[in-house]
From TrEMBL:
Signal peptide: none annotated. Belongs to the AB hydrolase superfamily. AB hydrolase 2 family. GO terms for molecular function: hydrolase activity. The lineage of its organism: Bacteria, Bacillati, Bacillota, Bacilli, Bacillales. Keywords: Hydrolase. PANTHER family: LYSOPHOSPHOLIPASE-LIKE PROTEIN 1 (PTHR10655:SF17), LYSOPHOSPHOLIPASE-RELATED (PTHR10655). This is Alpha/beta fold hydrolase.
Amino acid sequence: MPIEYKYEIKWPEGDQAGTKYPVIFALHGLGSNEQDMLGLLEELNKDYIVIAIRGNLAQGSGYAYFHIKSIGNPIREQFDQSVQELERFMESVTAKLAIDPARRYLLGFSQGAVLAMSLALTMGEARIRGIIALNGYIPAFVKDEYELQSVTHMPVFISHGEYDPVFPKQLGDDNAEFFRQVSNHVTYQTYPSAHGVSLDNKADVTRWIREDSATKNH
């Protein structure tokens, strides 16, 4: 059965009829919700459509896109469905709204970063402009069993907290090493933080995506 995701949209200031806008699809962490991601992207609302997607599964007082057996080990059936359904959701929303399909970004934190990296690899550079993955990991089965598309020219921003007690920094190092093997445009930053997004990290994300959009436009 298809998943009907709940989501919230923030529109650019001075929205003009007939204009196609870049979009940022935002995916939250385990037990959180879409509002958490809107706060992270508030400085980008002026120029981008921001679509924050709520996970469809209950998790404590919040939500999840999939549950896990252990750290780094998602329940495969739920994960596979989330990848497929999020891809379907993004295509459906793009067709309905004033979105430029050549400027679709995907940003995720924690569980959302796991999905952002996985979707980048399965959708490829032909369908995703760039990704921002904050404090996540790439499941082994994605690398080994999924049908991966080219991301050679896809800009990738990966960051990780140096003192993350949930996903150790080594996972961030591994993410960067993997993407550097398949993409020519990888930025990797670490911060003296735990499992969260510091102000410096937020500022770097904002600057990175603006610079990449400027490059795309010219």
